[in-house]
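Justification of resources, computational component.

The compute hours requested in this renewal are based largely on the per-chain cost of generating structure records like the one below. Each record pairs the submitted sequence with a full structure-token output. That output is archived, and it is also reused by downstream analysis tasks.
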Amino acid sequence: MTTFRDTVSMVRSTHRLLSADGAINDRTVQALLKSISPTLIKRELNLRKLVVTDTIYTTIPCLELQQVPLSECCEWVDPLSIARSKFKLPRIGESNYFYAIKGIFAIDQSRKLKEITPTRYINLLKLRNRIPDVYYWIQNNYLYVTDPNVCKVKLVAYFEEDVPNEIMYPDCECKAHTNIDLCVNPLDKEFKCPGYLIENVVTMVSQRLLQTYFRLPTDKQSDNADGQAPNQPDK
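The structure output for this chain reads:
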């Protein structure tokens, strides 16, 4: 497992300026890792890669749901209830084709839910012979499930943001003797990035830090420095 601390050390070792500058703390480097890596991961998802791997996915073992009226999220006037996650979810990664969701499973019924859109679900409701499948969709960062009796699900997805503790561990408290992720230093948590992309991410983060903190010249500025000065307005 590659941690954020491991990857931060890789960034610092790429250039002497980064390893020596005390103003660039580890949390600053970690924040850039989190903001840059999704760009490369989305490129891979667009190529239909990383779908079956476990490298980038996080499991929320027990996501709590509550009943809400279907009219909350779409145009439906009849009194029909569905289930919705109690909290908004962190931003889920997505490609040009799909959300980076590996699976959503109803804990009580031990079955995998099927993805659908609200419009398609309404069309299904209008059919005389309804299919008894359970569907889900993401809207306004909430998870909606078509069975109102489903109160908990297991969600496996790629999140571009940290999962809040109240979502990941709704019944846990951080105590001195516990050894769960809730109590782990953020730098010691796993860096959700495929191994073959880490070198590219490290290079991009290093370049961003050098340009931001040391004002390295851009290519255009370098050309001007090597050649003639840029044109000056006539006096």
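The beta strands are 58-69, 81-85, 101-106, 111-112, 114-115, 135-139, 142-145, 152-157. The mean pLDDT is 84.
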